[in-house]
Amino acid sequence: MIPSRSYIVTWVSFLAGFISVQRFYLAELYHYVPLIFVLLAVVSLRTKNKLFFSIFSLISLLTCVDNGGGIYNETPTFIRYSSYILCFLAFFYNKRTLSRKALVIYVGWLSLVLIITLLNYENLVLNALVHNIIILCFVLFVFVFKSKGDKVLFCLHIVLFPLAIGMVVGELINIIIHFDIRQGYLNYNSIKSLIIYPGLYVLCKRKFLLAILLIPLTLFILVFYVTRMIIISFLMVILVVVAAYLLKNFLKSLVAICSLLIILMSTSNYINFEEDDLSSYKVTSMINVLTSDSEGDLSNILRKLDPVRFGELSVLIDAPIFNMIFGNGLGASYFDNNNTFDFVGKHDFAFSEEELESRRFYNFHDIWSDVGFRIGLAPLALLFIWLIRKYWKLSSRDDESFIPLFCIVLLFCAFFSTAGIIFIFIILNNIYEKINYK
Q1: pTM exceeding 0.85
Q2: Is the dihedral of CA 436, 213, 265, 191 positive or negative?
C-alpha cells in the first residue's frame, strides 16, 4: 500500500537522507534529523495512522548517526533508542497469526542452541549475549508469527529509494568540497550500506542507463567511506544480477556489461589520490596487495589484506566440525590460547582494551565469524540459500528481486549494530511476507 500523495513521502525522504549526511555544512544540526521523525511517528501512532507511523519510524531509524568515529556528532542516545523502540512497535504491529510448524522448528533449533550455551557457559560474555538474544527474538517474530488481515507494513521503496538518493547527492557534495582522508573516514555509520540501494534497484529493474550512472557514483562514494566489505558485497550481488540476466538475454547483457565496465574504469580518472594517502584507502590497499608480485598462496593474500579478519576466520575454521556447524553457544567468546591476535595493538581499534588485556575476544567483524561462531554456519547457510532462491524466483517475474540481494549486502555489512539488526529484519520480514512494493 502506498499513500495517495506518495510524492510528499518521496520528497520528505529525499530531504531526510540529504540532511542526515550534512556532517560538514550542518555539523551542529544534522544528527538531530531523527528527532523530527520520532515525533511525527508518535503523532501518527496517537492518531492510529499505521502507515505513516511505520514510514516515519523507518526514516528515524535510517537517519540516526550511531557512530561518529570520534570525529562527527552522533545522534543522542535517547533519540536513537526512541527510534529503535518505535521500529519495534511498527514491526510487531500486525503480528498475530502463529505458524505451528515454524514454531516447532524454531523451538527444536533453539533447544539445541541453549544446550550448547549451557555446556560453554564459562565463555559467555554479556554484550554478545544481548546481541544474540535480539537476533533470536527477531527470528521468532519474522518466521514464526505472520501478519494478519489487511496489514500495513513498511512501504520500503517509496522511502528507501529517495532517502538513499538524498544520501548519494549529499555525500558527493561532501567529497567534492569538504572531505580530507587525513581527518578521518567520510562516514562511520553502521547502516551506511543503504547507499547502494538505488544502484542495485535500477540494475535489477534493467534500467541500464541509470545503472551506468548510479553504480559508478556509488562505488566512488564507497571508496571515501574507506570500506572493503560494502564494495565487495555490492560487486558480488551485481555479478549475481549480471549472471542471471546473462542466462536469459545474452546479447543485451553483453552490451550492458561492456558499457558498465567502460564507465567503471573511466571513473578512476575523477579520483585524484595523493600518493601519500593511498594507504589510507582500504580499497587501494586491497588492490595493491592483489596486484603485487609477492609470492604466496591464498591464505597469505587474505592475511595481508586484513590480518584481523583472517585471524577470526582461522578461529572459526580451526574449531571442531560440530561447533562450525552449530556454533559455540549464545554470547560465546574466544580465549586466545594460540596468540592469534597478539599483533593487534590498542591503537588499531580492532578490539576493545578489555579484550586485548583479558585475551578473551567477542567483537568479531564478519557475520560468519560473529554469528557463525556463536550460532553456527548452518543457519547462516540456510538463510543465504533462501535469499538467493527468493531472488531467482522474483527475477523470473520481473518482481522486486533487488530486495533479497540488498538484504544480503546488509547481512554482510550491518549485522553488528542494533540499528543494523532492526533494519535487516525489517527487510527479511517484507521478503517473507511476500509483499510487492509498487
Answers
A1: no
A2: negative
